[in-house]
Amino acid sequence: MVWFGLAAAICGEDLFFKSYVKACVRENSEKKLIGDKVILTRVYNRGAMLGWMDDAPEMLRGITMLGIGSLTGALAACRSEKGHVCRKLGLSLMLGGAASNAWERMKDGKVTDYIRFNAGPEKFRRIVFNKGDFAVFAGSLLLIVGEMIHGK
């Protein structure tokens, strides 16, 4: 049960930050958080990452729910296995981050993004993330490491 609790905590934390950003940060404004390298902003994304499928919102909602169901099933299937911490942690992070974005997508038809990095290539500097995105990315890496260690 701890793994689903972790996913819920990650989801709740990201929804909290999104609520704060919606209340306190003007859309498309920018505030420096760490020097000029990390920027707090508020933008909305009707699609998935980089606007993917923003022209097909119903299909994206279906894919989103399929993904949430798949992550939930995968976590439920492995939660009673001894060990496999990387796999369980990775799935928990992915589920929590994806659930936060899914909740907003289902409720509002768009996802709030609020962190931008002012470093690296120009294309990267234009991408705006949220904590849920980071959780999905980190969880994916942990899941890959877990599969490399304990792969079947």
Q: For the residues shown, what is the average pLDDT?
A: 91
Radius of gyration: 16 Å
Through-space gap between termini? 24 Å
Count of runs of 4 or more consecutive helical residues: 5
> How much β-strand is present in the residues?
5-15%
Pick out the low-confidence regions.
Answer: none
- Strand order, largest beta sheet: 1-2-3-4
Helix content: 55-70%
> What pattern of helices and strands is seen along the backbone?
HEEHHEHEH
Spatial shape = globular
Number of E strands: 4
Content-based structural category: alpha+beta
Described by its quaternary structure, the protein is single chain
**What does the largest sheet look like?**
4 strands, antiparallel
Walkthrough of the structure:
This protein is α+β, with helices and mostly antiparallel strands. The chain has 5 helices and 4 strands. The chain has a 4-stranded antiparallel sheet. A hairpin with a 3-residue loop joins β1 and β2. The chain is globular. The protein starts with a helix and ends with a helix.
Summarize the structure.
This protein has five helices and four strands, in the order αββααβαβα. With 152 residues, the chain is of the alpha+beta class. The model has no long low-confidence stretch (mean pLDDT 91).
